[in-house]
Design brief:
12% strand, Aminoglycoside 3'-phosphotransferase, Chain: A, domain 2, Phosphorylase Kinase, domain 1, alpha+beta, two-stranded antiparallel ribbon, 2 domains, 333 residues
Amino acid sequence: MSNIQFKKLCGKSQLGEIISSPAAVSGGLLHKMYVIETSQGKYAIKILNPQIMMRAEAMQNYIHSEKIANLLSNTIPALPAKKCNHTFIQEFENVFYLIFDWIDGHCLKPNEIETDHCEKIGTILADIHKADFSELNILDERSNYEMQTDWDHYLHKGKESNSEWVKLLLENMKKLKSWTKITNESVKLLASNHVISHRDLDPKNVMWNFDNPILIDWESAGHINPLQDLIETAIYWSKMKVGDIDKKRFFAFINGYKKRTGILEANWKMVLANGFWGKLGWLEYNLKRSLWIECSDEEEQQLGTSQVISTINAINQYSDMTPKLENWLNNEL
């Protein structure tokens, strides 16, 4: 995006005059992010992925997610997008973007996370789950969802384009179908109990200013089974650099959650099976990016290819750890 476009964008959104050159910053694995400083303040501008925005449901999903963050910002440290021109989502030259006040802080790396951090975020997650969102009238889009991914189709397409992940996908095909089956079983079992949550509350989406957390990137917010959300998020915060789970941090997170909710009881095997849902969905999306089915440029296509490989490995890693986690949960809780 050129400086001239940023200047026009800031004018339209009433952000003031630009006083320093916009700089690209990390925007995650989907979107592009820039920091700009104007006569009125410092802002982060997220340019939304054009392929995502072509989806029929995309605009409404973003509107809902920002409404969720905005409502929660009254009771928890959530950062919603700024409302400009009476809307959270801005459009400029057929591109959609979100504007945020700049936050001074940093995201914790795995070796920086302590049990106190885990307990604090666990308590905040419980507060999110207990919040009343009834005034937003957001329908539960996942209540009857069944994953029907045709993994063989992507394998065939990958062979046609000589994709570098073909061998890895073929080696994992039987497991992918098994994971999809057990995921669908767990979705049916847990569908009756859903809350609204962030749904992607891993350490990269929490900025820390000293000991004060600020929850960012609410674009995935929506309905989810609360215990699935709890366990997935506890895993995010207790992963060590090598990929193993720190038991103390894992239960510190859960104990922080329990402070607000009390005793937890569940079919933990099915809760853990539900954890495949988002991972398999992310894999399918990156297969589409890698195959140019849902992709806007070569950089994104290459990112999709690398994410296919890393996601298959991550799902295997998750599958390997679930028996241990199930044992912990059954014995400790």
